[in-house]
């Protein structure tokens, strides 16, 4: 006996849902008739309505007839996908109106599913799932506290450590937020919540800036995958998301299908991928509805690159032959397929480019139907806004949603606000959120404070208890998902093939979130659609070995069967290290403004400077360069304690050479702009030495980027480290080896 389960994704309302079901039944009827003719036996088992989605499973007895049935079922289901903006907004309104209720429910689900995890058992939660017991027994933690547990998981310990079910994969943070890459339990729920967040913000965005049918020029990249000691795959969370079928489906639904083929996104050489993203974006320039990258840095980096390669791209388009710089075979093959000689397009691009003044407005000029530029533009991305505005000309910039490798937090539902004012409405059903109230401490307390924390903390409050105008550190408790067999393993007997479906789309969604599973799914897809002959034993064994490797499946399959997905939790009361301000409420859920990372980056004595303080100082000093039309391309900092007293070092890469006098004034301005009382006081009494400005060669920050990408960061996820510690010796070495001149501040001399 074998099974097929097909689930049709969210129907806007019950009525159309019913129509869907009726249609499916009709289709299945036809399929059944056909299959019966070919001696198959079809038996409908059940139709279940689940969360506005409709499950239908039926079984049939004849080997191989499944392929026919699958095609009959899946093809119409694809066509039935209708993304209903109003229903997404309605759903968001409903959920946020009862945010408190959803928070309790979310926590209950998380704790119910993970009661057996060693971590929770040891804390004596004893099956309780209410917020009060949870907060009383489970401590607030940082990544450092969880590291020993995550280490055990990545070393291959498959016992229930952090979650009820074993973790099958590991996510890798970009490593550029805090200087080192963090291992996090892989979170398949991230794919789900990413789609929820994307759809929500898209729905609101589209209400104000409707886009037509088309594609998106997306500068997105898969990152390198590494194996942990225990054989688990570790890669960045965005790579996992981009690999998922569900991502592609959602992008399709929201007219955001990437102009580049997958081979470009997952190409092994990010520079070649970037070139091809630009090329493909231009091939489909009339269809492009918006321009996107995860972070603004990547958008700016892309157009800086365009300034260098545009003529070569024009030649490629004119001649229909891909530049010899593209050497990765998979990228070459995929892009060559869509590249045909188009002299008129090449001429038009050429004319437009030469007509631009210093590349101002290049985006709307080359992509005339683009409605906006989209990506994270807040926090550490703010320094790139000026350049991005330059490229975007009159096109609106829209800041994308707020999340991290650990999980998503909120969606931008006020898209018309400029990036500097962007807010994020927390989705109360994607995790359980707490907020640690933070209050700045006074000068006296600051001087006596031995810790690096320059905030007074109060007890964490719940999502609905936060107050407008106040600042908080975000604490998350979130989901991860694991695969489970809803019916046990018995029904595996006598199956040919395993088909994986989940609760959001008709075909193979969640499973695609890891490399192995996506390979498997691609393989399966091939098998179902492309391979005309039946599966032999060797193929079957191959599939099974893949499955056993990538998920916790332990049985042999002898036909198509149904898998379900179960959620499991991975992080409990995890301090994200981000500071946010509450700007208001959307119904009962808070709207957050991202303020900055909490950690201090520059501190020698009693001085305490954050990433934001550094950014403000750099902004102030960079104004002195503006008259010469010179820009700070990128910057970072370092605390140099090799001299006595220690001093701050700021590294700048400039768009062109400036003169010593101006740079010396910039150096003084940087020094004076660190307004933190601890710094000013220490400088005055020479407890901290004069600030040093070091100018690095053009391209130095590209080398830093290259280094991080080599470690596994994705280009689109890259954030320049804003402080390079002594222990980050490789990056420090790159910077120091490229210094062309340095200046010491005289600002406090008199
Ligand atoms: P990663 O280490 O790559 O997972 O990066 C996650 C971090 O990026 C978050 O903890 C934030 O500090 C930052 N981040 C993510 N989204 C935003 C946003 N919309 N605005 C500002 N910062 C963000």
From TrEMBL:
Pfam families, per database record: GH3, GH3_C, GH3_M
Top-level taxonomic group: Eukaryota
GO MF term list: acid-amino acid ligase activity
Keywords linked to the UniProt accession: Ligase
Boundaries of every GH3 middle domain copy: 425-480, 571-597
GO cellular component: cytoplasm
InterPro entries attached to this UniProt entry: GH3 (IPR004993), GH3_C (IPR055378), GH3_M (IPR055377)
Residue ranges annotated for the GH3 C-terminal domain, each copy included: 612-727
Family in the record: Belongs to the IAA-amido conjugating enzyme family.
Name of the protein in question: Jasmonic acid-amido synthetase JAR1
Record organism: Zingiber officinale
């Amino acid at each position: 006996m074998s099974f097929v389960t097909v689930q049709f994704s969210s129907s806007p309302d019950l009525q159309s849902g019913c129509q869907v079901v009726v249609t499916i039944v009709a289709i299945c009827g036809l399929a059944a008739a056909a299959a019966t003719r070919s001696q198959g036996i079809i038996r409908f088992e059940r139709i279940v309505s689940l969360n506005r989605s409709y499950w239908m499973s039926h079984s049939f007895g004849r080997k191989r007839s499944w392929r026919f049935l699958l095609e009959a079922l899946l093809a119409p289901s694809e066509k039935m996908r209708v993304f209903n903006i109003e229903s997404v907004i309605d759903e968001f309104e409903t959920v946020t109106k009862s945010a408190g209720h959803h928070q309790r429910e979310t926590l209950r689900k998380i704790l119910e599913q993970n009661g057996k995890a060693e971590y929770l058992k040891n804390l004596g939660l004893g099956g309780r799932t209410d917020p009060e017991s949870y907060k009383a027994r489970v401590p607030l933690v940082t990544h450092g506290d969880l590291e020993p547990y995550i280490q055990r998981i990545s070393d291959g310990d498959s016992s229930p450590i952090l979650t009820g079910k074993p973790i099958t994969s590991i996510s890798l943070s970009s490593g550029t937020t805090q200087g080192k890459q963090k291992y996090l339990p892989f979170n398949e729920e991230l794919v789900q919540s990413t789609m929820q967040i994307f759809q929500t913000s898209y729905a609101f965005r589209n209400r104000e800036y409707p886009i037509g049918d088309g594609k998106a020029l997306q500068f997105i990249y898969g990152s390198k995958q590494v194996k942990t000691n225990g054989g688990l795959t570790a890669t960045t969370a965005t790579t996992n998301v981009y690999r998922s079928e569900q991502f592609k489906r959602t992008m399709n639904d929201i007219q955001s299908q990437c102009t580049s083929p997958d081979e470009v996104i997952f190409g092994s050489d990010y520079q070649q991928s970037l070139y091809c993203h630009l090329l493909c974006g231009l091939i489909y320039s009339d269809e492009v509805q918006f321009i996107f990258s995860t972070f603004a840095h990547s958008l700016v980096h892309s157009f800086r690159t365009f300034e260098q390669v545009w003529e070569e791209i024009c030649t490629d388009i004119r001649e229909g032959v891909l530049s010899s710089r593209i050497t990765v075979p998979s990228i070459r093959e995929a892009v060559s397929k869509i590249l045909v000689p188009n002299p008129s397009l090449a001429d038009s691009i050429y004319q437009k480019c030469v007509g631009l003044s210093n590349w101002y407005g290049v985006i709307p000029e080359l992509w005339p139907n683009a409605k906006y530029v989209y990506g994270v533009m807040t926090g550490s991305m703010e320094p790139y806004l000026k350049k991005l505005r330059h490229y975007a000309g009159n096109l609106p910039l829209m800041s994308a949603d707020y999340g991290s490798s650990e999980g998503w937090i909120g969606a931008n539902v006020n898209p018309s606000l400029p990036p500097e004012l962007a807010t994020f409405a927390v989705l109360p059903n994607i995790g359980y959120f707490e907020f640690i109230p933070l209050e700045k401490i006074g000068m006296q307390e600051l001087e006596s404070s031995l810790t690096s924390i320059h905030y007074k903390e109060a007890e964490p409050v719940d999502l609905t208890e936060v107050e407008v105008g106040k600042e908080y550190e975000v604490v998350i408790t979130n989901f991860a998902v694991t695969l489970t067999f809803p019916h046990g393993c018995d029904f595996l007997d006598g199956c040919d093939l395993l088909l994986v479906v989940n609760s959001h789309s008709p075909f193979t969604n969640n499973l695609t979130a890891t490399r192995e599973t996506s390979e498997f799914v691609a393989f399966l897809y091939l098998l179902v659609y492309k391979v005309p002959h039946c599966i032999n034993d060797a193929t079957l064994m191959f599939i099974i070995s893949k499955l056993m490797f990538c998920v916790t499946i332990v049985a042999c399959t002898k036909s198509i069967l149904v898998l379900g997905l179960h959620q499991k939790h991975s992080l409990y009361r995890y301090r994200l290290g981000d500071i946010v301000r509450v700007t208001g409420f959307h119904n009962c859920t808070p709207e957050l403004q991202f303020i900055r990372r909490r950690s201090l980056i520059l501190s020698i004595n009693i001085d305490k400077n954050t990433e934001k303080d550094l950014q403000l100082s750099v902004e102030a000093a960079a104004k002195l360069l503006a008259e010469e039309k010179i820009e700070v391309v990128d910057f970072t900092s370092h605390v140099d304690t090799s001299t006595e007293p220690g001093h701050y070092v700021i590294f700048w890469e400039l768009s062109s050479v400036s003169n010593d006098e101006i740079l010396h004034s910039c150096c003084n301005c940087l020094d004076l702009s660190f307004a933190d009382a601890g710094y000013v006081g220490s400088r005055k009494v020479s407890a901290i030495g004069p600030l040093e400005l070091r100018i690095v060669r053009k391209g130095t920050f590209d080398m830093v980027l290259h280094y991080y990408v080599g470690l596994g960061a994705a280009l689109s996820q890259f954030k320049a480290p804003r402080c390079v510690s002594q222990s980050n010796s490789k990056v420090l070495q790159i910077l120091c080896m490229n210094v062309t001149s340095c200046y010491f501040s005289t600002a406090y001399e008199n």
